[in-house]
């Protein structure tokens, strides 16, 4: 059975409410309650004095109502006595001073003092609760990100990390190309984290920046190992995870989740949907991305429960159907647990305008009713958790691409995430399951592999893709691929796309970073598409031309090519289009590879399939605020705004 969860903060509410809250949650259909994540101050009110009495009681109340607990370590929010007594536990800014206190998440996860205290509170919790039947799983900290802390410990660790990587300053100077602007490093102590607020990231050496982000990814993962090991020492069979999200400074999620039992993510899809059908707003990319962290089904630890407003002003109210539709969308992409945020909107603190399921008035409301409906829907499908998505298509993602392209923008209106999302959207809009996986993952079992902007080049990937295409697969490569070497320096003396040129059978003759300008491309069949952000002007070296530019000084030159390679093919897409371009391209690829698809779905209707021994379930989700109609096996399917319909393998709607 798919599990339903709820975030609950007993420490925010009068003890007299707990029993009634638990009874209402159980009646709603909740299985697991998520507790504890910011409550260090209540667990250890003074240095070394622990108080778990209230937490014991809260867990007992929940267990008495037949529910279990996801217990969170509270290390995101250390108590004030720790920060003020030990300023080295606080993250430091580039000025070498601790950041201001008063919000949350101030801790430096590498500070040795912080680690000592974090180990102690985690150990206390693990000793007390690990192995209890009422504990379903553990969550480490909250929404870990690649903090740009510049405290002494982080500075020293960055230098140590570089020393281990390069061995000598000579090697580091060569890798970073420090002859530019007299940047030669002559002593390890000269190296500082490249985070000064006085500069934009693009003023720093991109090679140094990439190493700094890689170091930060290691720092995040190291903290996860650290807490996980403490919990597992007390209960090796404990299920341990953390709630990922997509912050401005992302970690490397493959590293972060490697030591954990299941991938998990906080899912806050948009409520204010744009009118423009070309707008790329669906949250589904994130869901496919998280499923790829461990290449298995995942959990949602925070699912949209009400209007946003944690950081005022308030957002709009979720439209009818939205909470249920979005929760089902997560399930449709492989979530096996969906935990809503949060039971009741807080009456105090900065997040009081960020709405949970219940309002401050505590009455049953429309949102509660909708989540109840979601629970009933899943109760009727008890075998769903025994199914998963099998995908003929994979999109390759690389943390290095994320890091390098964030710090060195290529063009206005061109972003790595947009490229990834456009391809994911096209697959889902054709009813074709797609995995988003690490660029290092094996490619076996896929028929097509899409590689948007492989910028920091791994030449072994080019070799793997050539073998994949030679054996009959289809590969898609796009603009800004093969541009940088592993240090984030430009590849010298080879036309783009360098390592992928042979596979694609074309070279980039020149390029035009057109930013927000728009031009058009046209296929041989006369289909026209708008492109923006970037235009590669291509010279075929054996490839056929799939589309040509119709404007600018390169009117008539190829924009997209298609190359026969062994038993397979490679497309090169030199410009960034809108949704329609990718759908046309993917439909062609599916036809060529005999991948079943639904070519007549309206934009905004998303289709995925979960399969298992118990059968197949196809999810048809209308992620728009308009009713949608489309043909399916001779019938007309109608979807209300935000409605999800589910069909079994034998054609029954359930
Ligand atoms: C999440 C966070 C929660 C809460 C929520 C509000 O990012 O983990 O604690 O702040 O946002 O939307």
SSE blueprint and pairings:
Layout: E1 3-7, H1 15-28, E2 32-35, H2 40-43, H3 53-64, E3 68-72, H4 80-85, H5 112-129, E4 135-139, H6 152-166, H7 169-176, H8 206-234, E5 240-241, H9 253-257, E6 264-267, H10 284-294, E7 298-304, H11 322-332, E8 335-341, H12 366-379, E9 387-388, E10 393-397, H13 399-407, H14 416-429, E11 434-438, E12 448-451, H15 459-470, E13 474-478, H16 501-504, E14 506-523, E15 528-540, E16 544-549, E17 558-565, E18 568-573, E19 575-577, H17 579-593, E20 605-612, E21 615-622, E22 628-632, E23 635-639, E24 644-648
Helix pairs in contact: 5-8, 8-13, 11-12, 14-17
This protein binds beta-D-galactopyranose.
Beta-D-galactopyranose binds at residues 142-143, 245, 266, 302, 308, 310, 341, 351, 354.
Give a written overview of the molecule.
With 654 residues, this protein is of the alpha/beta class. It folds into two domains: 3-147 and 219-386, Alpha-Beta Barrel (TIM Barrel); 393-593, 3-Layer(aba) Sandwich (Rossmann fold), CATH 3.40.50. 31% of the residues lie in helices and 22% in strands. It has 17 helices and 24 strands. The strands form four sheets. The protein has a ten-stranded mixed beta sheet with strand order 11-10-12-13-18-17-16-14-15-19, sandwiched between helices. Strand 6 (264-267), helix 10 and strand 7 form a beta-alpha-beta unit. The longest helix has 29 residues, at 206-234. The protein is globular, with a radius of gyration of 26 Å. The model has no long low-confidence stretch (mean pLDDT 97). Beta-D-galactopyranose (GAL) binds next to loops.
